[in-house]
Amino acid sequence: MKILMDDITSDVMAELEKTQRDFWNIPRETGIMINMFIKMMNAQNALELGTSNGYSGLWIAKALKETGGHLTTIEFYEKRQSVAIENFKTCGVFDIRTPIQGSACDIIERFEDDVKFDCVFIDANKREYVKYFELIKPHLTSKAFIAADNITSHAEKVQTFIDAIDADDEFQYEILNLPGGLLTAYKNH
Questions:
Q1: Which of 81, 140, 176, 188 could form a disulfide with 144 if both were Cys (CB 3.0 to 4.6 A apart)?
Q2: Does the predicted TM-score (pTM) go above 0.85?
Q3: Between vectors from CA 137 to CA 109 and to CA 183, what angle results, nearest 5°?
Q4: What is the rounded distance in angstroms from the CA atom of residue 31 to the CA atom of residue 60?
């Protein structure tokens, strides 16, 4: 897999990969896949739920840097958010990112009606995935893309989310056989 990243970003990503278990980072394969999806769909406005130390957000932000897009990240824990902010600054993508600290559900509920996203990555509290989906849905553009991590590794916790996507005629979805399982959904209206 050939990924074009500057040396600083490559070094930061390599260091963050060493902390994957401590910070619950996505696998590299998942990051590459999301990065490619964002570029292919020319995403302009992305939302990440569960920033942790910024590893997944860097994959997203690097793609958005190429598309001219913007990333909004939500992280519950202030300490993790601080680490992520430093990683985004080091990698030169802080200027296209809006970090928000707090409960994802509370924050999404306060979004104005005109706040729209064409790409959403979900990797936060697994039991709340279905609630995130319900809250995010009014904020999705036509043809939006959703990716949700840990679909097979936390199958019981996310089943209500899978059921909700499956029952919604506006979405086509597939679960990709990546480490932990990645659900990808496309809003076809």
A1: 140
A2: yes
A3: 115
A4: 8
Using one digit for the tens of pLDDT, what is the confidence trace for 84-139?
A: 898 899 988 999 999 999 999 999 999 999 999 999 999 999 999 999 999 999 99
Asked if pLDDT for residue 2 goes beyond 60, the answer is: no
Question: For residue 24, what pLDDT is reported?
Answer: 72
Question: With contact defined as beta carbons under 8 Å apart, do 25 and 17 qualify?
Answer: yes
189 contact partners, CB below 8 Å, separation of at least 6: 142, 170
> Which region holds residue 51: left if phi is over 0, alpha if psi is between -120 and 50, else beta?
alpha
Q: Which domains does the chain have, with CATH numbers?
A: 7-11+25-187 (3.40.50.150)
Phi then psi for residue 151, to 5 deg, are -70, -35
Distance between CA atoms of 105 and 161, rounded to whole angstroms? 14
Burial class (CB in 10 A: 0-12, 13-18, 19+), 29: middle
